[in-house]
Write a structure and sequence with these properties.
Blueprint lengths: L7 E3 L5 E3 L8 E7 L6 H18 L5 E2 L2 E9 L4 H13 L5 E3 L4 H14 L2 E4 L16 E3 L4 H12 L5 E7 L2 H16 L3 E8 L7 H10 L3 E4 L8 H6 L8 E6 L2 H4 L9 E4 L9 H13 L9 H17 L6 H8 L3 E4 L2 E5 L6 E2 L2 E7 L8 E8 L11
Parallel strand pairs: 3-5, 3-6, 6-7, 7-8, 9-10, 9-11, 11-12, 12-13
Antiparallel strand pairs: 1-2, 4-5, 13-17, 14-15, 15-16, 17-18
Organism: Bacillus aquiflavi
InterPro entries: BCAA_transport, Leu-bd, Peripla_BP_I
Protein name: ABC transporter substrate-binding protein
């Protein structure tokens, strides 16, 4: 654990605030991530990306506008109550200037009010629930992660058309609810019919009855929204939906989950990120540097998001010339564009959602790679997948 000592004053509410003008003090960033629990791999990807992003954006100096950057990583354990405890500790004891996180939409939604209470900027990454920048939005929240509606538009573009019958399958919590609602809206606009919605316990070990209800609805496509290690892919394959005339579509997951998607070779869907989809210098740097630092491993699904969050903070503090006052940062970051491994991102002023590139892909087998590879059909431009403003 990193321990800090800073000069500070107390305001009338008893909250601690730094003395104005002390811009030689370090900038402190608190990172909330699932380092244990069901989303452990996502948290580790985000942290790796964040650390690489700080180095990239500061040329390895971890300094911006004459101020050193320090960071503290806390494990939310993928539990909202723990996320609140850890965030409170970061804000009160460590006196961070920024929060980043978290891996779970449930964790993130629990922490959002604290960003407003303590008047600190929170960069949401990689949580995707629409409500984060929708019904639960406050002005201190910015999101580099894509949201469920962006995923939904990309997914709908891949399969929806006039007269196409689609069923959905998703986990029974905010991530799944928001994703299905957004997908439905996008797919119906393209002329498709939603014939069934199936929500399942994300902690279940048997999805047979859920999948059977999908089969009984006789859709042309099953669109799956899922995250985490406990996935339904093996049972979907075992129940031979494709042999029953039901095509499967989804967002291409991380590499670990791709390894069990062999039965879905040929599937068309979308991807948030796969290491050889973006064609830009920052992504080239990320791939090369990640392999150097992490035993020749490739960056995974949420690595570029962590990197983008770090880059966003550094770029914002450059523009404010070292000022970490939240109101000044909000003014600076609204509408701000910055370069990332996925190309240009822009924080939309209305809801602080980062508009970004997604990818229409097809899963294909490639020699020497032990899992189906997301192969680019075409880039989906930020304007093309811009979600509705919902706040």
């Amino acid at each position: 654990m990193v321990i800090f000592s800073t000069a500070c004053n107390s305001n009338k509410t008893g909250k601690v605030e730094k003395s104005k003008g002390e811009n030689n003090e370090p900038i402190k960033i608190g990172v909330l991530a699932s380092l244990t629990g069901g989303l452990e791999s996502y948290g580790k990807q985000t942290v790796h990306g964040f650390e690489l992003g700080l180095d990239y954006a500061t040329d390895g100096k971890k300094e911006v506008a004459g101020r050193k950057i320090e960071y503290i990583i806390e494990d939310t354990e993928t539990k909202p109550e723990v996320a609140v405890q850890k965030a409170t500790k970061l804000l009160e004891e460590d006196e961070v200037d920024f929060l980043i996180g978290s891996s779970s939409s449930g964790d993130t939604l629990a922490v959002l009010p604290l960003a407003e209470e303590y008047e600190k900027i929170m960069i949401v990454e990689p949580a995707v629930a629409d409500s984060i920048t929708g019904s639960e939005f406050n002005k201190f929240i910015f999101r580099t992660a894509r949201n469920s509606s962006q995923d939904a538009v990309a997914g709908a573009v891949a399969i929806a058309d006039k007269g196409v019958k689609i069923a959905t399958f998703a986990p029974d919590y905010s991530f799944g609810w928001d994703g299905v609602e957004a997908f439905k809206e996008a797919a119906i606009k393209l002329g498709a019919e939603i014939v069934h919605e199936e929500f399942a316990d994300p902690a279940a070990t048997d999805y047979t009855s859920n999948i059977q209800k999908v089969i009984d609805a006789k859709p042309d496509y099953l669109f799956v929204i899922w995250s985490g290690a406990n996935s339904p892919w093996n049972q979907i394959a075992d129940m031979k939906l494709q042999e029953k005339g039901i095509k499967i579509s989804t967002g291409a997951p991380d590499i670990a989950a791709l390894s069990i998607m062999e039965p879905l070779v040929g599937m068309e869907g979308f991807s948030v990120y796969y290491h050889d989809l973006p064609n830009n210098k920052i992504n080239d740097w990320l791939v090369e540097e990640h392999k150097k630092r992490f035993n020749n491993e490739l960056p995974d699904l949420f690595t570029p998001g962590g990197m983008s969050a770090a880059i966003a903070i550094v770029e914002a503090v450059k523009k404010t010339e070292g000022d970490t006052d939240a109101e000044k940062l909000i003014e600076t970051m609204e509408g701000m564009s910055f370069e990332t491994p996925k190309g240009t991102m822009t924080f939309r002023p209305e809801d602080h959602q980062a508009l970004q590139t997604l990818y229409a892909i097809k899963l294909e087998k490639q020699d020497g790679i032990p899992y189906p590879v997301p192969v680019l059909i075409r880039e989906l431009a930020p304007e093309e997948t811009a979600p509705p403003v919902q706040n």
